[in-house]
Design goal:
The complex is a heterodimer.
Chain A lengths: L3 E4 L2 E5 L4 E7 L4 E9 L5 E8 L4 E4 L2 E6 L4 E6 L8 E9 L7 E2 L3 E6 L1
Parallel strand pairs in A: 2-11
Antiparallel strand pairs in A: 1-3, 3-8, 4-5, 4-9, 6-7, 7-8, 9-10, 9-11
Chain B lengths: L3 E4 L2 E4 L5 E7 L6 E7 L5 E8 L5 E2 L8 E7 L2 E6 L8 E8 L9 E3 L3 E5 L1
Parallel strand pairs in B: 2-11
Antiparallel strand pairs in B: 1-3, 3-8, 4-5, 4-9, 5-6, 7-8, 9-10, 9-11
The chains are: A mainly beta, B mainly beta.
């Protein structure tokens, strides 16, 4: 069964700290992997999209890595700010899957001022 | 990035009534849109795939007669919750894939619509 897991479910860090969010998936035959941010009661904002052939993507203070062989992706946030507080979702699209994306349950991040 | 708009952002209705939610891709064409449902503190669950000009594809366990989907144009898909009941109260989110070279196949999401059925 193709599943996406995110641990921890919640994380609280002081402002300025660098942090890593983890995402693991059960089938390495992925097409792409996408990281999203969701603020309470809001939709999803796409942060980074990593294609199967890529190892990482960077946008500003965010860096996402992909290791298909180990079934893992990480989202690195540098110099965290209170405005980074949100739920971060990892989603995978697999080759041959009729479903477009399978989501993890998310990591709720709180950055304390 | 590409923009997907949902309307209304929130709606309260009485049990037994029907509610329509619109999803529009504002600056790109989307032959396929997706409807998700999200319960509090849970992740998104795909409900159905909306295909322009043809019938939607529903996920297992989703009642197609309960959740009517229409994708009449390349920029608009609608989800109608028919005869809504309190258990249908949820956050509904649509998404669309920008297949243009600019979009690189990235999936963009609307802001979501919160439905509360009294």
């Amino acid at each position: 069964k193709q599943e996406v897991t995110q641990i921890p479910a919640a994380l609280s860090v002081p402002e300025g700290e660098n942090l890593v969010l983890n995402c693991s998936f059960t089938d390495s035959a992925i097409y792409n992997l996408q990281w999203f941010r969701q603020d309470p009661g809001k939709g999803l904002t796409s942060l980074l999209l990593i294609q199967s052939s890529q190892r990482e993507q960077t946008s500003g203070r965010l860096n996402a890595s992909l290791d298909k062989s180990s079934g893992r992706s990480t989202l690195y946030i540098a110099a965290s700010q209170p405005g980074d507080s949100a739920t971060y979702l990892c989603a995978v699209k697999w080759y041959g899957s009729a479903r477009q994306l399978t989501f993890g349950s998310g990591t709720q991040l709180t950055v304390l001022p | 990035g590409a923009v997907v708009s949902q309307h209304p952002s929130w709606v309260i209705c009485k049990s037994g009534t029907s509610v329509k939610i619109e999803c529009r891709s504002l600056d790109f064409q989307a032959t396929t849109m997706f409807w998700y449902r999200q319960f509090p503190k849970q992740s998104l669950m795909l409900m159905a795939t909306s295909n322009e000009g043809s019938k939607a594809t529903y996920e297992q366990g989703v009642e197609k007669d309960k959740f009517l989907i229409n994708h009449a144009s390349l920029t608009l898909s609608t989800l109608t919750v028919t005869s809504a009941h309190p258990e249908d109260s949820s956050f509904y989110i649509c998404s669309a894939r920008d297949l243009s070279g600019r979009g690189r196949g990235e999936l963009f999401f609307g802001e979501g619509s919160r439905l509360t059925v009294l």
